[in-house]
Amino acid sequence: MADRAPVQLSLAEAGDLIRRRALSPVELLDAVLARIATLNPELNVFTTLAPPAELRAAARQAEQEITRGEYRGPFHGIPVGVKDLLDTAGLRTTYGSGMFRDHVPAVDAAIPARLRTAGAIIVGKTATHEFGKGITTNNYFFGPTRNPWNLDHIPGGSSGGAAAAAAALCGPLQIATDGGGSIRIPAAFCGVVGLKPTLGLLSNRGHTGGGNSSFSVPGPITRSVRDTAIAAEALAGFDAGYIYSRNGPVPNLVAGLEAGVRDLRIGTSPDLVWPAPDPAIATAYEATLSRLENLGARLVEIRLPHHEIVLRAIMGVFSLEGDTLIEALLGDRPRLFSPQLTRMAEQK
């Protein structure tokens, strides 16, 4: 680590160094907080930060536990950002809405609770599109989040704060949510690795607007495939309080990386390329398919001639699940919502 700053470490690297007591959780936390203090005024990736004194106390506690041989796993002493749609006990959670500008939950959502149990340090809440209803993270109430690679570009959304924070080295792990692309879109825009896990693998309890959704799930955003696999595997597990939770063994995602892609069947569908991609994207896509094939994967073309009808039906269900909550909250208080969300509710 001699030639690398703590913020440059991956989740796997930082976790290993902390476990071996070669890196102090306090040192890592201070480096992440300094990075956030420098970049957040321009990027607007965090809407709320926990009090520094509380964070340092948690980092010192993690260090003492590890010194006593009470290491809890890959999250112990790791600073983590949590998307502002997931409840965090004692830490402001706005859901990206002016209506909840002063809302402080009393109870953690399932994933923040698991993070804390595993010794992670939740540094703050990352910016989201209002109630997750958009793909720009240009938030009407809290301002736009900017792409760290180009401040004139959007980071994608709705988890734009999480993806931009990961890309800007504002912590080795960010927790986000995804219903219709809210992890995958900003991860792609910001050049990081995001995973929408299989429904039920990670508990979505405590996600306002998506807790019982059959589409929306929480998932990790990091800077590498390995880190994302480590996080998803560590956070997975049955939760009796979540109706879609899978009661079975957790897949060994990290070990699966070593297996490679030989003989893996991968579906490709030219029908789903809509709208037509930018030529550079199309070229990169074809190059990726060629590389996968050269590595031994079996590419299977899947034709979906009626995909537009199916997509409209899926989006109808997706919109109904999310908009039921929005309409209930809107009630006679439209001034507390952005013009965009008000229009969405009025169009139903």
Question: What does it look like?
Answer:
The chain contains eleven helices and ten strands. Helix content is 38%, strand content 12%. It has one domain (6-259): Alpha-Beta Complex (Amidase signature (AS) enzymes). With 348 residues, it is α/β, with parallel strands linked by helices. The protein has helices at 11-19, 25-43, 52-67, 110-117, 160-167, 184-190, 225-235, 253-258, 279-294, 307-330, 339-346; strands at residues 46-49, 79-83, 121-126, 138-139, 143-144, 173-178, 193-194, 217-222, 265-268, 298-301.
Record keyword descriptors for this entry.
11 helices; 10 strands; globular
How many H/I helical runs? 11
* Low-pLDDT residue intervals, each spanning 5 or more residues: none
Lateral arrangement of strands in the main beta sheet: 1-3-2-6-8-7
Structural class: alpha/beta
List the domain count as a whole number. 1
Give the overall pLDDT as a whole number: 92
Following the backbone from N to C, one meets helices and strands in this order, namely HHEHEHEEEHEHEEHHEHEHH
Percent range of helical residues:
25-40%
| Shape estimate | globular
Question: How far is it from the N-terminal to the C-terminal residue, by CA?
Answer: 55 Å
Q: CATH architecture, please?
A: Alpha-Beta Complex
CATH class identity: Alpha Beta
Strand content: 5-15%
Number of strands: 10
Which radius of gyration do the C-alpha atoms yield?
20 Å
CATH superfamily label: Amidase signature (AS) domain
Brief summary of the model shown:
The chain is an alpha/beta fold. 38% of the residues lie in helices and 12% in strands. The model has no long low-confidence stretch (mean pLDDT 92).
